[in-house]
Amino acid sequence: MNYRSNTLYRTRFLPDDVEITVEPDQDILTAALYAGVNLKYGCRHGNCSTCKHWLIEGDVDNSKASADAISHDDRENDAILLCCAYPTSDVVIEIESDITQPLPELIKPERRCAVVNEIEAVAGGHMTRLVVELDEPLSFRSGQFCEFILDDHASGEQVRRCYSIASSPAAGSKLEFCIKVVERGFFGTLLKNLTPGDKVELQGPFGTMSYKGDGREVVMAATGSGIAPLLSILRDLGEGDARPKITLYYGARSMIELGYVDELTALSRDRDWFECYFCISQEETPSDSDLYRSGRVVENMARDIASGSHLDAYICGAPGMCDTVTGLLEAKGVPESRIFADRFFPAAINLHDVK
Ligand SMILES: Cc1cc2nc3c(=O)[nH]c(=O)nc-3n(C[C@H](O)[C@H](O)[C@H](O)COP(=O)(O)OP(=O)(O)OC[C@H]3O[C@@H](n4cnc5c(N)ncnc54)[C@H](O)[C@@H]3O)c2cc1C
């Protein structure tokens, strides 16, 4: 089925009986968020099942949903992933709400044009730090992400890629991103040719992994560019009054692959509420530094955390790491409802690459 059509379709959500209009080529999730309907979702590209709900009437093209995210049985029973559901008629959808995980207040996404302000290789060339200046400020909470909208000249279609905002909301219309270099990736290739002054388009904010800020002690875990949303939270907290105790475990295979080491080191030296451990899995660590630890993030957390019922957890990066750390923390007693994770699923999916 081809979802490219010029027709506007109506989507009605039950049980609240809210109706929205979905633009041609727009997925139902994006249309709902733009219309102010607050829904739970994760990767926005059909790779997790966070936005799975039930089709009651009508038809959608859901062919971009990954088989890992929605089972054959679920499909047979009319389950759909809203993030890649394109209506081919007016539809009615039953929303399954999770009362154990109340959603943060929705900030409606908006589209923005931006100009590249700074672009530089960091982490020994393993990541790119990109700063863009928006034509108009964008409201967001620390921990949220934006989606770049890119033209694919080969197919004539638009391609979307999600990137967490690394800057604090206080930085105004300058947004910083920290992007892992994916050789031959669509955005990875495009990034190589971007220079200051180039124009880009993005929309946001998206994501429900924003900082909850209710004073509970926090443990954070990240690998690679997964540090981006956590940096936003830390930079935001550095500027504000609410400062719970925070411990960050930030991992990479070798020391050079870590980004923002100077900033994180300075923060941990200057603030008594922040501790940081750089976890290095495949290289010897300096014996004269109390910041570096040998082993993976999950191994270090397993050693340090005896019981976690008092903790909130923020976990970002490769989906495999997020799953392992989530499993560990649940086993240590961190309530499921207090674990917030953003799994960096690639949009062009080959899960074997990113486990
Ligand atoms: C909510 C969310 C937030 C995200 N935030 C960030 C962020 O802040 N920083 C960031 O760097 N990325 C982030 N990502 C991932 C990002 O959206 C892209 O998927 C990633 O940058 C690859 O895009 P690409 O166009 O370069 O590669 P694609 O063209 O999508 O992929 C090309 C090939 O590379 C493989 N591939 C893609 N990613 C990886 C990887 N990480 N490791 C190994 N192989 C891979 C793909 O499976 C595919 O085979 C986030 C993803 C999500 C869902």
TrEMBL record:
It holds the Pfam family Fer2. Residues 9-99 form the 2Fe-2S ferredoxin-type domain. Keywords: 2Fe-2S, Iron, Iron-sulfur, Metal-binding. InterPro entries: 2Fe-2S_ferredoxin-like_sf, 2Fe-2S_ferredoxin-type, 2Fe2S_fd_BS, Beta-grasp_dom_sf, Cbr1-like_FAD-bd_dom, FAD-bd_FR_type, Flavoprot_Pyr_Nucl_cyt_Rdtase, FNR_nucleotide-bd. It comes from the Bacteria. Residues 109-212 form the FAD-binding FR-type domain. Its cofactor is FAD. Gene3D superfamilies: 3.10.20.30, Nucleotide-binding domain of ferredoxin-NADP reductase (FNR) module, Translation factors. This is 2Fe-2S iron-sulfur cluster-binding protein.
